[in-house]
């Protein structure tokens, strides 16, 4: 049984709150400071491409991203202790800034992980070797809940990382078909449960009652492998 708290990886959202009251991004503002030199390299390129406004104000990532995953997570209504856990355990995989903690300052931007920028090529490919050592340090000995879509998962290289377990999750309907339309909303509720209930490992999902009616399907899941697959089936 792992003793370290889990690591929860989620994507950003296309929907973003405009404006912000924080200062323009600069080095030393964010967690995972080893990525600052890479962030500082991408930001000017993104500005020249029109993806980020010059001297754009910032706001905390958890307020910047407004998509359905974040609305379902409902961060500001979490218990205070759960929010504090989330600040340490949640990382957003971002095409602009690499890895972002919920309280990290983020400027308004329009930049997908699949985008190609001059001099970088596809951002997921550019970030992959740069994220690898930081991700490896963060994941070491922990259960990693990898809730990333393929676009963002492409930026994560797990070949040298040694998590206790990496867990991917699929939501399926009653016929076993993957649910795609509501996927982000469903994952938001799962992240909320992880932060509130603090499960130690993947087998705790047997007690998880998703508010939308999904339950663990043990027969379709692989729970005891280093790379675990969880299937939550609609009831």
UniProtKB/TrEMBL annotation:
A GO biological process held by the record: response to hydroperoxide
Highest taxon above the source species: Bacteria
GO cellular component: cytosol
Region: Disordered, residue numbers: 11-32
Name recorded for this polypeptide: Peroxide stress protein YaaA
């Amino acid at each position: 049984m792992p003793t370290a708290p889990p690591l929860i990886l989620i994507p950003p959202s296309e929907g973003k709150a405009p404006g912000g009251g924080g200062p323009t991004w600069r080095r030393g503002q964010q967690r995972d400071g080893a990525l600052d030199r890479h962030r500082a390299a991408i930001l000017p390129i993104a500005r020249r491409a029109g993806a980020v406004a010059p001297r754009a104000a910032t706001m905390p990532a958890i307020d910047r991203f407004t998509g359905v995953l974040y609305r379902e997570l409902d961060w500001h209504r979490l218990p205070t202790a759960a929010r504090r856990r989330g600040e340490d355990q949640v990382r957003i995989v971002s095409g602009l800034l690499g890895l972002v903690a919920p309280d990290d300052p983020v400027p308004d931007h329009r930049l997908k992980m699949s985008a190609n920028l001059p001099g970088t090529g596809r951002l997921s490919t550019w970030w992959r070797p740069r994220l690898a050592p930081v991700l490896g340090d963060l994941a070491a000995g922990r259960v990693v809940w990898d809730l990333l879509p393929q676009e963002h998962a492409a930026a994560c290289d797990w070949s040298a990382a040694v998590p206790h377990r990496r867990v991917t999750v699929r939501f399926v309907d009653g016929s076993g078909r993957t649910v795609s339309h509501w996927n982000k909303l469903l994952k938001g509720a799962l992240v909320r449960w992880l932060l509130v209930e603090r499960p130690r490992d993947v087998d705790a999902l047997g007690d998880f009652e998703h508010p939308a009616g999904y339950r663990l399907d043990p027969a379709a899941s692989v729970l005891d492998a280093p790379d675990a697959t969880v299937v939550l089936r609609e009831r």
